[in-house]
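Our collaborator T.R. sent over the components below with a one-line note: 'Predict the complex.' Nothing else. No constraints on interfaces, no templates requested, no preferences about which chain binds where. So this is a plain run: every listed entity goes in together, and whatever single assembly comes back becomes the starting point for the next discussion.
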Amino acid sequence: MSAEQSTTRRYRPPAPLGGRRRDGAGSRNAKALAFLAPALVVIGLFVIWPMLSALRLSFTDASGFGREEWIGLENYRTVFTDPDVFDAVANTVWYTVLFTPTAVIAALALALLLNSPHLPFRSFFRTALFVPFVVSFAVAAFAWSYLIDPRVGLLNYWLRGLGVQMGDVLQDPDLAMPAVAFVAVWKLFGFYFVIFLAGLQDIPTSLYEAARMDGAGPWSRLRHVTLPMLSNTMAFVLVFAMIAALQAFDQIYVMTGGGPYGNTQTVVMEIYESGFRKLDIGFASALSYVLLIATLLLSLVQFVFFGRKEKDLS
Amino acid sequence: MKRTRILLGAGLTSLALVAAGCSGGDADGPVELTFWHGYTEADGDVLEGIVEDFNASQDDVTITTELKTWASIDDTLLTALSAGEGPDLVAMPAERLPVYAARGAFAELDDFYADEASNTANLVPGAVDMIEVEGAKYGVPTGFVPLAVYYNTALFDAAGVTAFPETWDDWVATAERLTEDQDGDGTPEQYGVVLPDHATVANGLWPSLLYGNGGDLVQDGKAVIDSPENAETLQYWVDAINDRQISPTGVDGIGADELFSAGKAAMTVGGPWMASIADENGIDYAIAPLPAGPQDQAASAIGVSMAVTVDADDDARAAAEDFLAFFLDDDNAAAWSLGSGWPPLRTDVPADAVASNPVVASLTEIAPMGRPLLPGVVNSVDVLSAVDELTQRAVAGEDVATLLADAQDKIQKALDE
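Returned assembly:
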C-alpha cells in the first residue's frame, strides 16, 4: 500500500481532443455558463422566481387576481396565533412521528436482510421493494383507498373472511392518520432502502472480519460497526424522511381531504386550503415560508448531530 | 468556437421559449370568449346547443366552451386567472362564488341586472341570493334546486307503504318500516333511508333539517347554529339514526348514491342527478319533497352560478353579458330546464313548458321551498367544515350541546375573517 502511494504521480488532466487552445478564463467561464444556461433558466424561472414572488406575496393580502395590498407582518402574525395552524402543526408532528421512524426502520431492516449474500432471489426482492417508489403518489393513494374501502375493498373482504371487521378506516378519527402515514411508508421506504443498501455496501468487509476476530456477535457488529459506519447515510435518510413527512400532502388530499373533521389536516394541506380554497395566497405564502424555515432548521440540527458522530469516529 | 455558439444559441433559445409565454390578441374579427363549465351529462349537450345557437345568432361574438369537472374548475381557476389565461365566463358551484367574487376574480354585474333586456327580472330570488356578495351581484344562476327525497318505489310497494310521509315522525316511522335486518346480526342489510353525515350532500341535508325546526346556520352575518331548536333537531335525528337504525352512519354523498343505486336504501336525499343514477341502475323511483319538520318545510338548495371573470376586457365583458341575457331568454330558460333536468331559473316560465319532463315537473313543484345555502358567505369552506365536524361527531354519539357550542365558535370565526 505505502509503496504504491509514494510513487503516485500528481494528477494531470488529459489533453483535450483537438489540441489545447490558449483561451483565457473568461471564455471558459462563458462556455461553462452556456452549458449551464438551460438548467439555470429553468431553475431560475420555476424555482427561484416563484420563491421570491412567494416571499413578496407573504407580506400582502394577495388573492392571485391582481388586487393586493402590503400588510406587513400581518400574515406571519396570523400564522403564530391561528388555532387552525396549531392544529395543523400538531397533526403534522403526529404524522412525522408515525411516518419517519417506521419508514426508516423498515428500510434499514430490509436493507440489512437483503444485503446478506446468502438470500435467494435477492435482486428480485430488491426490485420489488423499490417498485412502490416509482408509482406516482396519487396512484398509490387511489389504489390504497380502494383496497381499504369498507364496501368494495379487497382488504376488507379478506379480513371479513377471517372474521375481522376493519370498518371505514379513513372515516375513523383515530385511524385515518395512521392509514395515510402507512401509505406514505409503503410508497417511500423503497427509496430509503436503496440508499441504505448502497451505504451498507460501502462498509469495508475488513471491519467485520476484525470485529469477528475480536469476538463480536451479530448484535455487536450491528451496533459497533454497521450503524456507526452508516451514520452519514442515516443522516441523509432521516433528513429526507423528515422533509417528506413535513410536506405530507398528496395521499392525504386524495384519501381523506384533511378529514375526518380536520384530523389529517397537515400544514401543507392547510397551505393548499388557504391558497386554493379560500384564495388567501398571501397567508398561504407566509405559512409556506414558516414551514420552509422550520424544515431547514430541523435538517441543520440533524446534520450537525450526525456530522459530530461521524467526526467522533475518525 | 462553433460549439460555443451552438451552446449559447441553446441557452438563448430556452430564454426565448420562456419569453414566448405571452401572446397578443386579434385586433379585428369577432370577440372570442372562452367559457368553462362542468356540465358533463345530457345537461352539457343542451348547454353546448345554447352556446352554438348564440354563436349562430350574431357575428360579433364567438364562444368556445371548455368542459372540465366542477372540482378541476375550482382547482385551476385561480392559477389560470392569475396567469391571465383564465376563461371569460365560468360556471361553478354556487357556494364557491362568493370567495372568488370577494377576492376580485369576477366582474360586478349590477348594471346588467338593472337592464330590462337582461331577462333577470323574474329569476328565482333564492338563486339570485347566491350570486350576491356584500350587496353587489357577481353572476347569474345556472341552476337552483332544493334537495329532495328520491325513493325506490319497488321497495315501498314491497313493504306495503302507499303514501309518502309528510312529517318528520312519519318519515322516521316509514324509514324504520323499510329497514330490514334479514340475518339478525344487528346490522341492517336494507336501510329505510340513507342520510350522509359529511361532505357534499350532507352539507345541504343537515341545514335543511335545521330549517325544518326553525333553526339556521348563519343569519345576517352572525352564527346562529348554537340554538335550542338546533340542539333538539340534532338529537332527534341522531336518535333516529343510532337507536332506530334508519340510516347507515359515516356515509358521504357518493356512498349514499351507491347504496341507493344498489337497492340497499329505500330513500336518499339528493339532486336531479339521482334521477339519471336511478335510471342507469334500473331502479324505479319517485321524487318527493323533504317531509315537514315541526316548524317549517324547507330544503337547502344546490346551486350553480356563472360569472364573468376579470380576464374579460371591456369588449369581452359586454359580449359575455349578451350571452347571459340570451341564456336567460324565454326560449332558453325553458329549454335549459328541460334539458338539464333542473327546475326553471325564472319564475315566469309556465308550468306546461316543462311538463314534458316528469323530473323537472316534480322538482318545479317543490322548488319554492328551496333555500340558498350560505348566501354571501365568503369563507363557506370553514363554515361547511364546521358543519361536517358537528354532524359527524353528533352521529358518532358525542354530546350535542358541546358540539353546537364548538361549531358556533368556529362558524363565527370564519364569518369574522
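Summary for T.R.: The radius of gyration of chain B is 24 Å.
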